[in-house]
Amino acid sequence: MKKYLENFKLWLDSEVLTDDEKKELLSIKDNDDEIRIRFSSGLTFGTAGLRGTMKVGMNAMNVYTVAQATQGLASLIHKEGRASDGVVIAYDSRNNSELFARVSAEVLAAADIPTYIFDALRPTPELSFALRELGCVAGINITASHNPKQYNGYKAYWDDGAQLPPEHANTVYAEICKIDIFKDVKRINFDDAVAAGKIKILGEEMDNRYLARVREQLVNPDAVKKVADDLKIVYTPLHGTGHKLVPEILESIGLKHLYKVEEQFKIDGNFPTVEKPNPEYADVFKLGIEIADRVGSNLVIATDPDADRVGVMARTRDGGFRTITGNQMGALLLDYIITAYEETDTMPPLPYAVKSVVSTELVTKICEAHNVEMFNVLTGFKFIGEVIKNHEKSGEGSFIFGFEESYGYLKGTYARDKDAVVASMLICEMTAYYYAKDMTLCDALDKLYEKYGFCREFNVEIYMEGVDGPAKMAALLDGMRASIPNELGGVSVKTFGDYNAEVFIDVASGEHTPTGLPRANMLYFKLENGDVVIVRPSGTEPKVKFYFLVIAANEQEADTRILGYRNSLGV
Known about the structure:
Layout: H1 3-13, H2 19-26, H3 32-39, E1 50-53, H4 63-79, E2 87-91, H5 97-110, E3 115-118, H6 124-134, E4 138-142, E5 151-158, H7 166-178, H8 190-195, E6 199-202, H9 204-215, H10 223-226, E7 232-236, H11 242-252, E8 257-260, H12 286-295, E9 299-303, E10 310-315, E11 321-324, H13 326-343, E12 351-356, H14 362-370, E13 373-377, H15 381-394, E14 398-404, E15 408-410, H16 420-435, H17 441-452, E16 454-463, H18 469-482, E17 487-488, E18 491-498, E19 503-506, E20 512-514, E21 523-527, E22 532-537, E23 543-552, H19 555-569
Parallel strand pairs: 2-3, 2-4, 3-6, 7-8, 7-9, 12-13, 12-14
Antiparallel strand pairs: 1-5, 4-5, 9-10, 10-11, 14-15, 16-23, 17-18, 18-19, 18-21, 19-20, 21-22, 22-23
Helix pairs in contact: 1-3, 4-5, 4-7, 11-16, 13-14
C-alpha cells in the first residue's frame, strides 16, 4: 500500500478522532488526489511556523497538527533549559484560532512550562511585545495573517520577540518528526490548568502597557491636535484584531473624527464583506470609501485580521481615491519621520533604517540625502529584528524605521514584528502634518518623486497549487539558475545574485562576491540601467513572486520597461 494511503488509514482508524472528523475523512475515501494532498507529508515547520488550510489530515491545520507542533516547541524549550521562563500565546479572529490557542496552552501546561494566554483576540505585534515584557522564552501566535478564510497558521517566536531563528525552527521540526501525532502528545485540561496556576490569563493591563510604548513612537505629538477639528479618517479592521486598539491609539493622540466601517468591525473568521482580508487589495476599501465620500475624509486605513499589516487609500486632487502601495507608504513614512525629527531637532544619534531587499530603492535615496544608514535584509521581519538586536548588543545606532513592501512597518524597539497599530498612528500623524499644509498623501508622494525620481514597483504572482506545487516552484527557480539570461527587456544583466548559494556574480567578468546575507531561495538580477528584478517563492502560499523595481524619468517609461522585463520572463 502506498505511504499516503497508509497514513490515511492510520488516521481513519484512530480512536482519537471524533465522529465528525472521521466522517470528513470518509467523504474523501474515493478522491485519491485529495488523500495525497492531505497525507503524503505533514506540514513543514519552518521559521514562519505552520500555515495551511483547516481540515483533517497531516498536511493541514487542525488540533492534532497544532498540538504536535507545540509538543515539538516544548521539547526545544526543555533542551535549552528555559522551561521556567514560560511562553505567551495570542490568536486572531480566524475560525478555530481560539481553539488552536487553547490546545497549544494545554500542551505547554502538560510539559510544565508556565503559559500566558490572552483573554481574547489580540494583534500580532502585541504578542511580540508581551513576550519581551514578560521575559518569556517563546511565544505562539495563531494566525494566517491576510490569507483567505480557509487558512490558519501557527507562528512561533523566540525570546527577542522575533520569529524563531532557523536553527531553532529546525530543532522543532526534527522533534515533530519524532513524535507520534496521536500517542506522544500530552495535554492537560485548559480549565484545570488555569485553576492550578499553570496557565495565566492576560487582559487589559497588558494592552495598556503595549499602547503606552506605541504612543512613545510619535515624532510630533502635536501634529494631530493642531488639525483635530477638521481632520477626518475612516478605519476598518477587516473583521480582525485591530478593532479595539487601533481606534484607541488614534483617539489617544487627539483624533476627534474617526469613522468606523461598522460592518467590518464585526469579528468574523469568514470575512463576509471581502473575498480576501488583505489590505493590499483595493476591493477591501469599498465600504470605507463610501463613508469617506459621505463625510469628506481624505484617507481610509485598513488593517489585516491580525493587525500586523496596514493599507491605505488616499484622496487625489481630482476627488477620487488612490492606493498607497506598501513601498510608497514605506517611503512616505521614512521621509516624514526623518523630516519631523529634523524640524523638531530631535534626530537620535547615528540613525538607521532597515528594509527588505525586495522593497523600493526610493528609501535608499532618502536615507542618503539625510545621512541615515540603510540596511537591506532578506524578506521576513525577523531579519529586521536581527539588525535591531545586533545594534543593541553593540550599543551603537538608533533604529528609526523598518519596513517590507508587503505593507508591514515598525518604529520602535518594543516589538520585533511589523505593527499595524503603530503604523496606523504614524500614518494618522503624517496625514495631519500634510493636511496642515493643504496636502494629501498623494501630493506628498508626488513631491518625493519630483525630488528623487519616479519609482515604480510591480509584483507578479504565479500560483502553483496542488501536491506537485512545491516541485514546480523549485523547477522554475532552478531553471533560471541553470540558464542565467544576459538581458531582460533588451537591457543587459549586470549582476546575478543567487541567495541560495550566497553569491553575487558579475555577468561580464564572472567575478563572485558574497551576498553577506543568510541563505534563501531567491534570485536577483541587477540591470545595467539600475533596475532590479527579484524572483522568490512565497513563504506562506503556493506561489512564486516576481518583483520589478524600476527608477525612470516618468510613469510611462517605467511601465514600458516593466512590460519588457515581464515579456522576457514570460510572466
